[in-house]
Design brief:
The protein contains seven helices and six strands; from the N terminus they run βαβααβαβααβαβ. By secondary structure, it is α/β, with parallel strands linked by helices. The protein is globular.
Length: 215
């Protein structure tokens, strides 16, 4: 039996989320047998990145585009990976097309525009307006008003998912604590990352990950 899957992922071709995505696809093959799959991705403009990923708003134009692509692929299920390039439009398109959608959670962009639930001043308390700043800029409070209600907007869509796959029990706990109420399955992926040789330098911390400005 052939299972038709559609993956919605980010534009990255390296970094942790990319390798997790590749590992996830491999695990789905071994778990479900032979399947046909296709991938939808995009590279958002600066405005789209701010509107969809930072602000957490649903881009209705992206919803229309994704609905057409979902109809063309005609999948039995959609797997969302690092899908913030589309934002919540990806979930809304799946809901409108009545296709089960599963989110594989590799980071926390849904609850933090920095992706990491941390800022130089404090751990995440849900007040993005207070702590968020873009790289190399300092925005006044009034310029960040578009972030008000961000978590509520995104959470409303996350709770229309068919399920979430987390990489650890700790991650699952954070998601439940943030208000996710759909089933969460913990699945530890065997992620293969290219070996990198780095010389040890005392008193220096090496960051390994995608070169996201907010990280």
């Amino acid at each position: 039996m052939t299972t038709k899957l559609l993956h919605i992922a980010g534009p990255e071709t390296t970094g942790g989320a990319y390798y997790a995505f590749q590992a996830c696809k491999a695990s789905l093959v071994s778990a479900e047998g032979v399947h046909q799959s296709s991938t939808i991705s995009c590279t958002p403009t600066r405005f789209q990145q701010a509107y969809r990923g930072i602000g957490g708003y649903c881009d209705l134009r992206a919803v229309r585009e994704l609905r057409n692509l979902i109809r063309s692929a005609n999948p039995e299920a959609v797997h969302l990976h690092n899908f913030k390039c589309f934002g919540t439009a990806a979930i809304k398109a799946c809901v409108l097309e009545r296709v089960p959608a599963y989110w594989h959670c590799y980071d926390y962009w849904s609850f933090c525009p920095r992706d990491v639930l941390w800022s130089p001043e404090r751990i995440c308390d849900g007040h993005c307006v207070r702590c968020y700043q873009p790289k190399d800029r300092t925005l006044p409070l009034v310029a960040k008003m578009f972030l008000l209600g961000r978590q509520h907007r995104i959470l409303r869509y996350l709770n229309h998912l068919s399920g979430v796959v987390a990489l650890s029990q700790h991650s699952a706990g954070l998601l439940y604590g943030a208000g996710v109420r759909v089933p969460i399955k913990v699945e530890r992926l065997q992620i293969q990352i290219p070996k990198i040789e780095v010389a040890r330098i005392p008193n220096r911390v090496l960051f390994v990950g995608w070169m996201s400005p907010n990280k």
